[in-house]
Batch of 2 targets.
Target 1
Amino acid sequence: MDDYLENGIYGQKQTKPDERRKFLGSLRERVVVALTQSQVREKGVYKEVQEALKENPDARLLLNGSMSYTFLSKYIKLADTFNISFSMVTNMETETDVGLVLAYNEAIDKEEIFVQEKSLKKKEDVKKKKSIFSSIKKMLF
């Protein structure tokens, strides 16, 4: 009887509610790939997300509904291209830094789910280029 009343007052009990809030209603063990809000706001589409959408046709794309549609539209179009269902998840009670999640309804336990930021990749490329140019410069002078 107490359980019935608690369900009526507080709603149905959930497993790992903090994790569900962070990953837009899904659990970390179900996630294929995830992007932060700042990554979703960047120009262009992450190729890792595009490949994941192509390789996981039964997964579902979850988008942070508190973000502007202009940033999410490129991923919505991409999901339509690969016939992936998507949902805009809006939770006014809590905020999360996650902007996009591609997840299954069951656990897949993927080790690395967050994509490295493009800006970090570009910085690494610049460092490599500097070292090549600096070595040529040293040879000439």
Target 2
Amino acid sequence: MAAGEENSHILSGLTHQLPDRDPEETAEWIESLDSLIQEQGTERAQFIMRSLLQRAGAQSVGVPMVTTTDYVNTIPADQEPDFPGNEEIERKYRAWLRWNAAIMVHRAQRPDIGVGGHISTYAGAATLYEVGFNHFFRGKDHPGGGDQIFFQGHASPGMYARAFMEGRLSEEDLNGFRQEKSKEGHALSSYPHPRLMPEFWEFPTVSMGIGPMNAIYQAQSNRYLHNRGIKDTSDQQVWAFLGDGEMDEPESRGLLQLAANDKLDNLNFVINCNLQRLDGPVRGNGKIMQELEAFFRGAGWNVIKVVWGREWDDLLAKDDDGSLVKVMNTTVDGDYQTYKGESGGFVREHFFGQTPQTKEMVADLTDDEVWNLKRGGHDYRKVYAAYKAAVEFKGKPTVILAHTVKGYGLGTNFEARNATHQMKKLTMPDLKKFRDHLRIPISDAELEKDLYRPPYYHPGMDAPEIKYLMDRRAKLGGFVPERRTEYAEVALPADKTYEVANRGSGKQYAATTMAFVRLLKELMRDKEFGARIVPIIPDEARTFGIDAFFPTAKIYNPNGQNYLSVDRDLILAYKESISGQIVHAGINEAGSVAAFTAAGTSYATHGEPLIPVYVFYSMFGFQRTGDSLWAAADQMTRGFIIGATAGRTTLTGEGLQHADGHSPLLASTNPAVVTYDPAYGYEIGVIMHDGLERMYGKGPSSGDSTRNVMYYITVYNEPIIQPPAPEDMDVEGIIKGIYLLAPAKVDGPRAQLLASGVSVPWALEAQQILADDWGVSADVWSVTSWTELRRDGLAAEEEQFLNPGTNARTPFVTEQLAGATGPIVAVSDYMKAVPDQIRQFVPNEFATLGADGFGFSDTRAAARRFFKIDSHSIVVRALEMLARRGEVDWQTPAQAIEKYKLLDVNAGTTGITGGDS
């Protein structure tokens, strides 16, 4: 191991591996710099250093990029702005907030409740939040439009405590923490959940990593709205409060380059670096702040470190030989955590005692004074300086790395302990020490009345401190967090827009993907409505046929297109624009869902509805990004999710990881997702028309939760003749999930064929074969949504369960199939469990054909014959069921298997070639 390599992860790496051939000259240069700083200040010194580095580069002097700086504050003490508030008043009610947050969680953990909660996160981050609440976070009534704040999920008790001080929540509300049904009407969700508290929280964040990702795309969406002329968002900031342990999630770091590339200087990450995960240190042997500094700076971000409080300023000023900074640089996080779990004497011996120079620095300080040398994230002035610098910085997003102590102020049993995250209640001695530390005017007698119900503290709305607090919020534009749902009226497209879907494809072959794209193009052409559509694609536009939109709608890029496009002479040239409409996220499904979420909640965030249409490889939707789609549901996103290249056997050639046979099942687990598997373009038209009406039509009020849905529509890449809409089109059946597509054409033994999506033509072919070869009379039903039929059936069962003795409502699928005699064969290009969703609601004998197992590369015909879902398999299955009933000869199924060579994959004929993959 090379010299110094063992510490390369915590040191800047500029000089510690290089020999100093002339120490005397080096000392002269350093002395010259020190003189410059003393005489003209750090700002002038920064300019000189930058100039020298630039000149060194021009002269080919190899100077390494400084990815990490020393373990000290980025903003020098002489450049700190004056703190504009009353620090004493703010500190006073911050103590009340911390008390009430802890008491709320403590009460919720009493033996008869035991619902838990987290005390230590907010205790350590209170200063980070309060500086923002008092001086930076703009509410929705601010002239600039207000900021968007992504609160750290585990810190939610602090936000509730502040809302209590503001008069927005009552004691009864605080007592309902995590008891959302038993204390309904006075209940608080565990974490930021907009769907559970739709007037309070805006952004769900507690699924780690999704907050950072969504915050980046929220900032991008703000710029998108501005650059397209929909809303002026130039004065709005996005703040994301994150934990240092959370930054190990790939999603937390994986999209940083987008923020830098788009120059999102409206975005601020605040990372609460308390050095702890849920179970122990983040980097016990290293330094997480240094690691994050290098990572963010390398990704193109502006980095501000807030490491030490003001008590360290004098010590650092006396650090003439750099001994203190060296100790700071080389001390690892595991030790920093330990120091806060021990005493001032321990810190004196083990930290300052590492060198004679540093030991001498604190010789005049008492152990208590040594102990009270604070971390920077607990110092109002240091945090204020960082926030001010962040919002004023232009050209890059900013990350603030704030050094804190988890469980700060909760006492020695909590502060910096590995178990502190899971500690949810305090003992009586803990309560008294905590009260004394915060100077809460509550007597021992009041505390001792009931260990599990210590009192909250509120001095009354007329107290000067509360008036100050309320005045700060009024000047900043109102309360935060707050969610509003009033939005601009949406003029939906006229019925004629859907004619392109209803007229079919004539003699041309067109996959349902193309039918969808043609409809989307018409919707985007609508003069009033079209501009609100946000097409979102993860680098597969040409596969989906959306490249036709490039020349007209253009791809959104805040930097425009500053190059000569290689395909500029083609009709479908790749065109980027500052005002482009298409969000092209690259090979990035996670980012695409984040963009979908930001656009789909713009109706609430900005009062300007956008209709996101996210088109993706079916397999890489709910399987890859299901957690993000769940968060989108929590945030009450509205829009369309298009699973293109759907099905297990339709995407020929691509093979196992591209062959989707289960997405509808995954989608069915999300209550906000309305899933459809249409067969034809006219069905897609009916479904999208219904979706837009449900989301933004003239129906119930904008706050109606039934509007907060995402329509998931699967479309395929197999070309077929798209039929025109039937004259007597069963619109209700299409929307609710099933309609009779093709009645039987002959008299004979009866069977019912239920199919969805790409399998509907197979069922129609099977209907013809059954009639021609076996004299069987089969009806064909198009099932547009197995999932919606199941949900309706379950709802009917629930109604009967809770209302015994009343006439039970008949499930829609049961009602539709009433009078449809004979056995049912249900088929789709998905696994059997998809059609099986409706089995319990169908009185007929029921059999399912499906593509269970892994997908593979082959022809469509061979794959369908292998899975036994092709037309001839449908025929044989129907004949077997009829034979058991004695309605056809018992030998017929075996004859059919031999006739159609059902066991030979090379004998399959179902499906045609063609379609992009």
